[in-house]
Amino acid sequence: MDNKFDFTKISDKCVKCGKCIQVCTIHNINGDEVTSPRGFLDLLGAYGRSELELDENAKQIFESCFLCTNCVDACNDSLGVDTMIENVRYDIAKKFGIAWYKRLAFWFLWHRKILDIAAKLGFVFKSCGFKTSDKFANSMQPRFSFPLVKKERLLPSVAKKSFMNSHPEFIDNGGSKTIGVFIGCMGNYAYTGIGEGILKIAKALKLNLHLMKKQACCGAPMYFTGDFKAVEKSAKFNIAYFEEILQSVDAIIVPEATCSGMLKVDYAHFFANDEEWKQRAQKVSEKIFMATEYFDKFTNLKAVLAGKRKTGKTITYHDSCHARKMQGVFKEPRNLLSINYDIKEMSDPNQCCGFGGVTMQTGNYKFSRAAGLSKITMIKDMPVRVVSAECSACKMQLNNALHIANLDKECVNPIELIAKILDD
Question: Could you write out the DSSP letters of every residue in 109-170?
Answer without folding.
Answer: HH-HHHHHHHHHHHHHHHHHHEEE-SSSTTEEEESS--SSS-TT--EEPPPSS-TGGGS-SE
